[in-house]
Amino acid sequence: MKILVINSGSSTIKYQLFDGVVEKVHAKGIVARIGEEGAYISQETSKGAFRLETPVPTHHQAFELLVAALLDPEHGAIQDISEVSAIGHRAVHGADLFIESTLITPEVIAKMEECVPLAPLHNPPNLMGIREAQKLFPGVPQVAVFDTSFHQTMPPKAYLYAIPLEYYMEHKIRKYGFHGTSCRYVSRRAALLLRRPLEELKLVICHLGNGVTVAAVDGGHSVDTSIGFATFSGVMMGTRTGDIDPGLIFYLVRNLGMTMDQVEQLYYRKSGLLGVSGVSNDMRTVTEHAAAGNARCQLALEMFCYRLRSYIGSYTAALGGLDAVVFTAGIGENAPLVRKMSCEGLGYLGLWIDDEVNNRTRATDAVISTPDSRAKALVIATDEEKMIALDTREIVGKLEAGS
To answer: Would you say residue 124 has pLDDT above 80?
Structure first.
């Protein structure tokens, strides 16, 4: 049994091929720049790595290229397509229709199409990937794993907005949250690292990449999260504003003459680390320039860490206590300075960073707080693809047992 995990985006398809127990990755690859100039596929297996630049005008051709790479006698990982016994798909938005990962059926696809207005940039390519995989792997069971499903345990007091309730009842306007697959994976890993049952842990998960999610997790269940209906609320991000006074939209339109499209571009593409620093959306670059004396980069760094620390404190209150803060994703796993600055002042929670351990920890699981800290600080390398593969194995295993 081998499990293929697919993340189909608008211009890229990322994939990994796992063994049946989800312990070994047989192949890892990406088809990039679909429909653009400079398209290519790259893949790594135990046989080595290769990269091929070739025109890839459509997702259909991208999937054909993916299958050919997996079967390639010199660079591939399988000899026959029948070795793929299950496929797991990353699905971004399941609204409140999907509270857990699910076997893909025509009814599930129809419900995912209902969610397209909530994620017009993400759900269509997700659905395209599912349909292409069904064509190329006929009869192979396929599973959808939703980024939003982990946060569907939030209570109404956390996910509702203080607008007339009809907007939720009639149009599904509410907080949904994202990066749920990552949050679920690192929550489980945190329990193993702390050697405590997940059911008794109060965690604040900080998924810090170009997109940022902070989640309050109580006993393995999300009770609040920073990103809401759209994907720019919460902590400032690489190019997104984070929390901002909504009244600013009216001011920009009425007083500065901006169109709604321009405001949307400002909020999503030109703000965050990039907008404040004036240099980059990449935390590594911002940190380097700050260390060299760039005042705007220093300000961007301080703003990011201040807002993150504010969310840690807020969610500690929401949880009624704190066992650990967990840092994950690109910034969380690789930026010791961000972790240290974000935890400064949290001594009142009994949390102090061990500078020596923190400074040497990158992209690996570790406890970075001092031994006498009551609340711990952890770094955990996230693995959303493995979480998708685990869910796929579980659901397909139940299907086979039932048959």
So the answer is: yes
Asked if the model's pLDDT at residue 4 lies above 70, the reply is yes
Whole-model pTM: value is: 0.92
Residue type for position 258: M
383 noted as active-site residue: no
Round to whole Å and give the CA distance between 142 and 6: 10
Find all residues with CB under 8 Å of 162, minimum gap 6, and list them: none
Domains present along the chain, CATH in parentheses: 2-146 (3.30.420.40), 196-384 (3.30.420.40)
Supply 125's token pair: 């390519």
Q: Are 4 and 84 in contact (CB under 8 A)?
A: yes
> Is the pLDDT confidence value at 197 over 90?
yes
C-alpha to C-alpha distance for 90 and 84, rounded to whole angstroms: 17
Neighbouring CB atoms inside 10 A of 259's CB total 10
Q: Are the beta carbons of 220 and 246 closer than 8 angstroms? A: no
153: which residues sit within 8 A by CB, 6+ positions away? 99, 221, 222, 223
CA distance 345 to 239: 27
Give the pLDDT band of residue 303 (cuts 50, 70, 90): very high
Beta bridge partners of 13: 8, 31
The one catalytic residue in 147, 224, 354, 383 is 147
* Mean pLDDT, range 235-253, rounded to an integer: 95
The DSSP code sequence of 24-86 is -EEEEEEEESTTSTT-EEEEEETTEEEEEE----SHHHHHHHHHHHHH-TTT-S-SSGGGEEE
pLDDT confidence tier of residue 116, bands split at 50, 70 and 90: confident
Tokens 């005008």 appear where? 57
DSSP bridge partners of 145: 90
